[in-house]
Amino acid sequence: MAPEAERLPLAGSRATRRRSAIIDALTNASTFHSARDLQKLASDAGHPMALSTVYRALQALSAANEVDVLHPSCGEALYRRCTLGHHHHLVCRQCGQATEIADEALEKWVERTANQHGFTEPHHTLEIFGTCQECAKFG
Amino acid sequence: MAPEAERLPLAGSRATRRRSAIIDALTNASTFHSARDLQKLASDAGHPMALSTVYRALQALSAANEVDVLHPSCGEALYRRCTLGHHHHLVCRQCGQATEIADEALEKWVERTANQHGFTEPHHTLEIFGTCQECAKFG
DNA sequence: GGTGCCATTGATAATCAATATCATTAAGAT
DNA sequence: ATCTTAATGATATTGATTATCAATGGCACC
Ligand SMILES: [Zn+2]
Ligand SMILES: [Zn+2]
Ligand SMILES: [Zn+2]
Ligand SMILES: [Zn+2]
């Protein structure tokens, strides 16, 4: 069982105003947001920046395992700051509210299934989309 | 428990040479292929066509639940003709060879997990990527 | 504080998959 | 054969993301 990857800051990377602004925006948000969303959030917080800068920050954070990326079947990628470790998401299809799901039994199932078919080094993606209680009430 | 969607041909759609060529290409392939791949496969089989036509055929087939679509984190969407019913995939990250996975226990787990968090109408996506035996041998 | 190196930034252009437009072609019913 | 209308292909367009590159600014060292 390989330990989770360390989350050291990338070698040679610098702490800048823009990057902290993006991290702040992500930290304050409980839902997934697009790069454009984050640009606006940062701007509203007094830190306007170019969209390319947002993308670059997200790229770095993603490489450092500081954010989770969701690739919906259509549209922009969505980003969220998550807790450490492997997990999946339960996402409200209306409001975007996301709950982290970590389940040992599921992980075992994945590994067992892959091995049964002779596949090694199984990686996987799993996302559950539903309607949350709030949105079911007022949706 | 809603029954699986019917797979009637779309109302007003016509059977054409190009569409059968795409269906043939998909049927002969055991792996996922991009729209460009399928254009080439159809062309090699003597049925050249514009890429837009390929996309339109795939759109129709996808809407009719005749093909499964994979959206890798980067790059083009991948298409594959699948058997009827809800299932997931075990995909070789090298050769693209895909195995269908249908597991009642997993489906139950998804529904239970969603319900536990107050989410209704849970949809989900799950793909497992690994290295198949053949590719593990020859790298 | 000042200096220098080099990562970062922003403006802009480029990519690339996928879709829209629209005149032309052809399926298939009568 | 004729007619209605879906399908097609050439082309332009969209939209997200990445590349380019000159100018800026962290920050390590003096
Ligand atoms: Zn909601
Ligand atoms: Zn997992
Ligand atoms: Zn393989
Ligand atoms: Zn399933």
Q: Biggest interface and its residues per chain?
A: A-B, 33 and 33 residues
> Would you report the number of β strands of chain A?
5
Task: Give the N-to-C terminal Cα separation of chain A.
Answer: 43 Å
Which second-level CATH architecture of the largest domain in chain A applies? Orthogonal Bundle
Ligand roster = zinc ion
- Structural class based on helices, strands and sheet pairing of chain A: alpha+beta
How are strands sequenced across the largest beta sheet of chain A?
4-3-5
Number of domains of chain A: 2
Q: What's the CATH superfamily of the largest domain in chain A, by name?
A: Winged helix-like DNA-binding domain superfamily/Winged helix DNA-binding domain
Question: What does this molecule look like?
Answer:
The structure is a homodimer of 139-residue chains. The first copy, chain A, folds into two domains: 1-7 and 14-84, Arc Repressor Mutant, subunit A, CATH 1.10.10; 86-139, 2-Layer Sandwich (Dna Ligase, domain 1). In chain A, the strands form two sheets. In chain A, strands 4-3-5 form a three-stranded mixed β-sheet. Chain A has helices spanning 17-28, 35-44, 51-63, 104-116, 133-138, and strands at residues 67-70, 78-81, 88-92, 98-101, 120-131. With 139 residues, the first copy, chain A, is α+β, with helices and mostly antiparallel strands. In chain A, a hairpin with a 5-residue loop joins strand 3 (88-92) and strand 4. Chain A contains five helices and five strands; from the N terminus they run αααββββαβα. Chain A binds chain B through residues 69, 71, 73, 90, 92-93, 99, 101, 103, 105-106, 109-110, 113-114, 117-133, 136, and chain B through 69, 71, 73, 90, 92-93, 99, 101, 103, 105-106, 109-110, 113-114, 117-133, 136. Strand 5 (120-131) of chain A pairs antiparallel with strand 6 (120-131) of chain B, so a sheet runs across the interface. The complex binds zinc ion (4 copies). The site of one zinc ion has 5 residues of chain A, from strand 5. Chain A binds a DNA duplex (30 and 30 nucleotides) through residues 12-16, 18-19, 34-36, 49-53, 55-56, 59, 74-77.
